[in-house]
Amino acid sequence: MDELPAQVLSWARTSAALALCSFGVYTAYFGVWPDILQQGVHLSLILFLAFTAQPAASAIRRGLDIGLGLLGFALIFYHVAFYETITARYGAMTDAEFWLGIGAILLLLEATRRVVGSPMAILVLVFLIFPFVGSWMPDLLSHRGYSAERVVSQMYIGGGGIFGTPLMVSSTYVITIVIFGAVLERTGGANALMDIATGATGRMRGGPAKASVVGSTLMGMVSGTAVANVLTTGTISIPLMIRSGYRRHVAGAVEAVASTGGQLMPPVMGAAAFIMAETTGIPYLEIALAALIPALVYYVVLLSVVHFEALKHDIKALSADETPSVLKTFNESSHLLLGIPTLIYALSQGYSVMYASFWAILVATLAAFVRRSTWITPRKVVQICQSAGESILPVAVACASAGMVIGIITLTGVGLKISSLIITLSGGSLFLALVLTMFASLVLGMGLPTAAAYILVATLVAPALVELGVPLLAAHFFVFYSAMLSSITPPVAMAAYAAAGIAKASPLKIAVTASVFGISAFIIPYAIVLRPSLLGIGSWVEVSWAVLNAVIVGIGLASMVSGYWLRPLNILERAAMGAASFAILLLGWKGVLLGAAIIIGISILQWRHLSRRVSEQRIT
After folding, report:
1. CB 3.0-4.6 Å disulfide test: which of 222, 465, 506, 605 passes with 475?
2. Which of 509, 590, 38 is nearest to 253 (CA)?
3. CA-closest candidate to residue 285, choices 473, 425, 117, 498
4. What's the domain count of the chain?
5. Is residue 465 part of a domain?
6. CA 360 to chain centre
């Protein structure tokens, strides 16, 4: 008897996923609908998918989930059905809409708890309570207080709460990019990227780890989410690293850090970059270009870490049988990757992300018909939509919830007060303000997707950095990097937990190791603020000098954390390598000279030691 309801639910979920993707592709080509309509269609389908994502074993629980999903769909789709009536009232709310709004808020909180996690749901709940307790708060956070009607109206009616900028980004930019990533995944393009990465690096020392880094970089350009990257490339790279001799927690950490970095690799970078474009008013293409140098430095450092780890533990290269042929992969699968240059070209020509994504999807789909084995059949279309629906769920729900937080911040003015608090606590010191901002990002970002963490911190504390004289783009990149770190920073590290399931290792151990391996992600934000030329700002001489310094600093830090240079470093050498790196980063040209002298000195000492050992071995 239970088989028929389960089949009906499966059919309903498939229909919702098809509708979600079809709507996203349709509006990408024919034009975005008015804000509330676009977001209403998107979120109503998302809520149905969220409540039916994991069908319960019992018929009663399954029926309850279906009911909640349908109710969530109805409460949000109400804005679509009565769009003209609602907009004609210019934000005025009826008594019935007050209760509809309460229902929508409660259902969105529950969907957030299920899909994103309890930390995000609790955080949103705290912000929702804040308007009612303003008179009891300390002077720094106090306000006059607001009625329930005013709060519900802010959240449910108009574009200041649920239907805010974050959800608009999810319903336009992100959904089309996610669909493109799903096309690549289901047609074999993602595997082709991983095979190319493995073929290019597999015969090097520590090849599997380097393949993980390169593969996650390539896949990150089109998926833009850390957990999705781990679950896509990690299923191949992590077992390969373990077989090659990497310890389980190290293999998981390398994949977690590599996949996290995919969010900052142009041309896509993930949902947070689109939200940054909307928040700052800076064109997305400009943001993507600015992200290129920091992203390259990030991956140079990570490649250095895995290289030093391979040398330290004598991890060999892959055998010829384990290394795919790059030439063969290109011959057999290059057609599956044509969507990527299409996307990059369209973006470079100034087309919108949505329109560029549409053509990338179309080209990738048509290219799949070049070979019979990669044809996109109706069944595969369904699988693509189902995969895209699953991938967009946490982002869309987090964006809707983050919209409520922003609505409360706007309503109460608490954002300005928190910015003033940071400026006061820092005593006007930019460096201390940066430290406080990063700490706030790590705390607020625990358990949240990067996009949600970025929204919160950008709204609350980025204005303080701008007020202290940090350029707008540099301030938001600092916040972006800080928010991204929540994916690998314990105790709640979503990318580390995803990698732990594949590596069969402790999530906490992976998170701690990933934080060490990802040291560049903790340093690059400060370097960006101190040297905006890392974002491409300035002459080519200034940019080149900043890049050279950043790479040297990054490799020095990689040597320090791995404990290896030409040979294993002792504790004094590690400390000296770290001091040299920070001197180059912080002390200008004098620091460059001092740091270079230290690194050259360590190199000479280690080279002489190695030469002595070689001579002794020859004698014996």
Report:
1. 465
2. 509
3. 473
4. 3
5. no
6. 21
Q: Are residues 137 and 227 in the same domain?
A: no
Where among 360, 393, 426 does a domain terminate? 393
CA count, 13 A, side-chain hemisphere, 538: 15
Mean pLDDT of 288-304: 85
Query: In angstroms, rounded to a whole number, what is the distance separating the alpha carbons of residues 9 and 460?
Result: 41
Main-chain phi, psi angles of 366, to 5 degrees: -65, -40
The pTM for the full model equals 0.81
Count other C-beta atoms under 10 Å from residue 366's C-beta.
13
Residues 118 and 177 in one domain: no
**Length, in residues, of the chain:** 620
Question: Is 131 found in the same domain as 280?
Answer: no
Last residue of some domain: 367, 393, 419? 393
Least confident of 42-56, 145-159, 198-212, 395-409: 198-212
Q: What is the pLDDT of residues 200-228, one digit of tens each?
A: 777 777 777 787 777 777 776 665 567 77
Report whether 527 contacts 585 (CB < 8 A). yes
Rg (CA), the chain: 25
pLDDT tens-digit map of 437-494 = 888 777 777 667 777 778 878 888 888 888 888 889 999 999 888 888 878 887 667 7
The amino acid occupying position 336 is L
| Residue 513 and residue 250 in contact, taking contact as beta carbons nearer than 8 Å | yes
223 in any annotated domain: yes
SS3 of residue 140 by DSSP: coil
Q: Which of 335, 359, 337, 361 is nearest to 347 (CA)?
A: 359
Residue-wise DSSP of 530-545: H-GGGGT-S-HHHHHH
* Structural domain boundaries enclosing 311: 169-393
State the DSSP code for 269.
-
Determine the longest span between alpha carbons in the chain, in angstroms: 94
Name 266's bridge partners.
none
Read off the pLDDT of each residue in 40-50 and give the average, rounded to a whole number.
96
Reduced to 3 states, what is the DSSP secondary structure of residue 204? coil
Report yes or no: 524 and 293 within 8 Å, Cβ to Cβ. Answer: no
pLDDT at 158: 73
d(CA 266, CA 285): 9
The one-character DSSP state at 33 is: P
Q: Which two tokens stand for residue 93?
A: 């709310």
- Residue linked to tokens 């299923």: 235
Shared-domain flag, residues 142 and 173: no
Nearest in space to 584 (alpha carbons), one of 541, 550, 542, 533: 550
The token duo for 81 is: 């059905």
Alpha helices in 447-506 (DSSP H): 450-460, 462-467, 472-484, 494-503
Q: Name the 3-class secondary structure at 532.
A: helix
427 φ/ψ angles, rounded to the nearest 5 degrees: 60, 25
Cβ-contact 75, 99 below 8 angstroms: no
